[in-house]
TrEMBL record, chain A:
This is Calcium load-activated calcium channel. It comes from Exocentrus adspersus. Calcium-selective channel required to prevent calcium stores from overfilling. Residues 45-70 are annotated as: Disordered. Belongs to the TMCO1 family. Its main location: endoplasmic reticulum. The chain crosses the membrane at residues 6-27, 88-106.
TrEMBL record, chain B:
The keyword Transmembrane applies. This is Rab5-interacting protein. It comes from Exocentrus adspersus. Pfam families: EMC6. InterPro entries: EMC6-like, RCAF1.
Amino acid sequence: MWADTLLIVFISICTALLGEGLTWLMVYRTEKYQKLKAEVEKQSKKLEKRKETHGDSLDKQHKKKIEREEERLKNNNRDLSFVKMKSMFAIGFAFTALLSMFNSIFDGRVVARLPFLPLTWIQGLSHRNLPGEDYYDCSFIFIYILCTMSIRQNIQKLLGFAPSRAASKQGNSLFGTAPGQFK
Amino acid sequence: MTTRTKVLEKNGAAKSSLASVWTRAFTSNSEWPDKEEFLDVIYWARQALGVILGIIWGLLPLKGVLGLLLFVLINAGAIYFYFSNFQSVDEDEYGGAWELTKEGFMTSFAGFLVTWIIIYSGLYYETDKLSSI
């Protein structure tokens, strides 16, 4: 039991490092990406500050300025996702192939015993391709997804590749709020 | 470029009279001029707490919904206590208590589940499997 679970953790660390390494090679180290990222971060912070100080004021000039900056940030964010997109697709394909390979290696094998009964809609994942009706038995894919969720994000954060909070907050608000909020 | 900005920020912080992040994280009512720094402390504290609770739950062993609920309560409670009582930060500066309470929660939860499942399976697989037959 130890061997299987620790092997999955190891696989997930390796794939996370490989993914980040490939993304670094194809995206992070390019000048275009670095320039855009720095720009987006600067603008997000500036916009956040401006919203904090003038957010409630009814001054039309300030609102116009904020709107203009939001528009510029939106454009930069779009460019940034476009730069990332191509390599993400390539990495996505490579990882789907890798995942199906691991899936066939661990096919039908109980790799762990769950200390809780998963919800019905998770059982499809935690009991995938396993024989029997004992839903405490855990499949490879469930542990792998959990490992990736925790390890990948932590590795990204450690290496400094995770998007900054200000940028993601502004990015979310761009899609989350109604347009013309500051009109 | 990002690395350079970070180095500059770090150097800037080193020049000021503020102690290192580690010292400030363990000292009550520390000053946090950089919001990101404090959010990072919360994030990593949460990850460490997740793994530690996962190990304890696996060793005990705690099972079922009780284990999951206890984790959520302790994780959220400890972090809430940390920022509101120990560090006494102004929650509104960070977008409210909810923003701080959920910072890095999902990652911590995933880390907790992984350690809990690994330790539990490693130690109790045979007994658990036999008892279920």
